[in-house]
Specification:
Blueprint (H helix, E strand, L loop, with lengths): L15 E4 L3 H11 L4 E2 L3 H11 E2 L2 E2 L2 E5 L4 H5 L1 H9 L5 E5 L10 E3 L2 H19 L5 H33 L1 H18 L3 H90 L4 H51 L2 H4 L10 E3 L3 E7 L6 H13 L5 E7 L6 H4 L5 E2 L11 E4 L9 H5 L2 E8 L8 E3 L3 E6 L5 H4 L5 E3 L13 H5 L3 H19 L2
């Protein structure tokens, strides 16, 4: 089945195929062998590449099969194996497989061991290619003998190391006894300390998870902090002013009550005087005079009662406003409690916008130029929309965000995003769309770039919405229950995102961007904004 040549198992002039879905595995092999490796991720790619290396029933190619096979290869693996077994010449290396698939294949437990074998095999192949009369070959062969001798010495030293370890076993047991004595005699509350340690360790782990996000947010929060401190100071002054006004109005109310009580007393006295006059049959003129004074006093009482009622209403209004300001201050002092509670979860918040148009791009497979192309798409769409526009990136930090999104602020809550941040990142969590209505006010367009590897589309719109899903093949949209127009390498893609030789060959950045910008303009025309 396999047929190594004089050049070795991985000849320099022959291709290497790699069956894996991990780009890190490809990168590690290329770094170790200092040469390119061809990824085979679908049966179609296998057939296309087989036509290049096949000659009759002979396939002159090296193949590395890993335990992380791509999904399509796994589904059709038995068919591929039968197809490969009909040809000869394969040089197959199996890495991490529990059972060998191909007879005569080289099997390895780890990728590191396979790379070490390939490097050694390549060196030996280079020696075999030297002519028999070449003195260099004789010198290298003699060095090979010396190397074998040194390897034997190393093996002997390792055996001595094992023997020495066995000798020290008794000492190790004594040390273990001493450790047990320390635990039993000096640390009687071991369980209590262990529980305390686990509790502290859990808190430390939680803090470590928060540190990465907090570092990235620090610069953004510094700016927000200054703004919030200013708002807090203004509210403090408003609060003091309202409290002072409330105290003045309380004093005024007390004074009016005292006046009303005095008027009531005067009114009662006037009524008593009128009654006495009536009883003593004083002349009508005196009685009429007292009646007039009594009427005036009653009108004064009613007027003061009306003013008192107005003051009570105004005081209640100011009291309510003061309570609202206190609540607002408390919310400002909370700071970022919501963001501190954010965790890695598959259950994320979702929202529906009322009057904001949405262009939603789901990135299921990352394709060439897509970050710059989406940035240009957002800029060209923003020119066509009334009101503010924002580009929101939904992505869980995988350690590469500083490289890919350098300088872009990150938030845990949509309500924390200031209007001046046109482009921002939102950390996916259960409360990320808090205060979405306040954010969406005067926002005409929201472009969402969703890197979450799931079938959820978390932003909808009752105005105008357009969904686009970036996949390697358009058929994946139906296969993985996705939705929207395909942004793919196929002919039905809404945007030609395939590798472009004009962009790759240009050494001037302005020219490369100009070519891409023209292609994006066609994309904008298809969206019809």
């Amino acid at each position: 089945m396999t047929q190594p040549t004089k050049q070795g198992y991985f000849p320099d002039n022959k291709p290497i195929w790699l069956f894996t879905d991990k780009l890190s595995v490809k990168q590690e092999i290329e770094d170790g062998l200092n040469r390119t490796v061809q990824l085979i991720r679908t049966p179609t790619e296998f057939v296309e590449n087989l036509e290049v290396v096949k000659s009759g029933m002979f396939a002159d190619v090296s193949v590395v099969i890993t335990d992380s096979l791509p999904t399509e290869i796994q589904l059709n693996f038995s068919i591929l194996v039968r197809s490969m077994k009909t040809l000869t010449g394969w040089r197959i290396a199996e890495v991490g497989l529990e059972d060998s698939v191909f007879e005569g294949a080289k099997t390895f437990g780890t990728l590191k061991e396979m790379i070490r074998f390939a490097q050694e095999d390549r060196r030996e192949g280079q020696i075999r290619e030297l002519s028999t009369d070449d003195k260099t070959k004789e010198l290298i062969l003699s060095l090979e003998v010396d190397l074998g001798s040194e390897k034997k010495k190393v093996k002997k030293l390792e055996e001595e190391k094992v023997e020495l370890t066995a000798r020290n076993k008794e000492t190790a047991l004594k040390v273990k006894d001493l450790e047990g004595k320390i635990k039993n005699e000096l640390l009687p509350d071991v369980q209590k300390y262990r529980e305390q340690y686990e509790e502290v360790a859990s808190k430390v782990k939680s803090l470590e998870r928060s540190v990465t996000l907090e570092k990235e947010k620090a610069q953004s929060y510094a700016r927000e902090k200054d703004m919030l401190l200013g708002q807090n100071k203004d509210l403090e002054y408003d609060k003091k002013g309202l409290e002072h006004l409330g105290r003045e109005q309380n004093e005024e109310i007390k004074q009016l009550k005292r006046q009303i009580n005095g008027l009531h007393r005067d009114l009662k006295k006037a009524e008593e005087d009128a009654l006495n006059i009536a009883r003593s049959r004083v002349d009508a003129e005196s009685h009429a005079k007292l009646a007039t004074e009594l009427k005036k006093e009653r009108e004064g009482v009613r007027r003061l009662e009306t003013e008192l009622e107005k003051l009570k209403i105004e005081f209640s209004s100011k009291t309510y406003e003061l309570q609202h300001k206190n609540q607002e201050i408390a919310e400002l002092r909370k700071g970022t409690e919501v963001i501190h509670s954010v965790g890695m979860t598959n259950i994320v918040d979702n929202c529906t916008l009322e009057r904001t148009n949405v262009v939603y791009i789901k990135v299921f497979n990352e394709l060439p130029y897509h970050r710059l192309a989406i940035q240009m798409l957002y800029e060209q769409l923003a020119e066509k929309v009334d009101g503010r526009s924002h580009l929101m990136i939904l992505k869980v930090d995988e350690g590469l965000d500083d490289k890919y999104f350098e300088g872009i602020p990150i938030y845990g809550n949509l309500g924390d995003v200031p209007p001046e941040d046109g482009v921002f990142r939102l950390f996916p969590n259960r409360a990320m769309f808090t205060e979405v209505d306040r954010f969406a006010r005067n926002v005409g367009l929201l472009v969402v770039v969703d890197y979450m590897q799931n079938d959820q589309y978390v932003v909808k719109s009752n105005a105008r919405e357009r969904y686009i899903t970036m996949v390697q093949r358009s058929e994946y949209i139906k296969k993985f229950n996705l939705k929207g127009a395909p942004l793919s390498l196929d002919a039905d893609s809404v945007f030609d995102i395939k590798w472009d030789s004009r962009i790759a060959s240009s050494e001037i950045q302005e020219n490369r961007h100009a070519i891409l910008r023209m292609k994006v303009a066609e994309w904008v025309a298809k969206i019809r904004y």
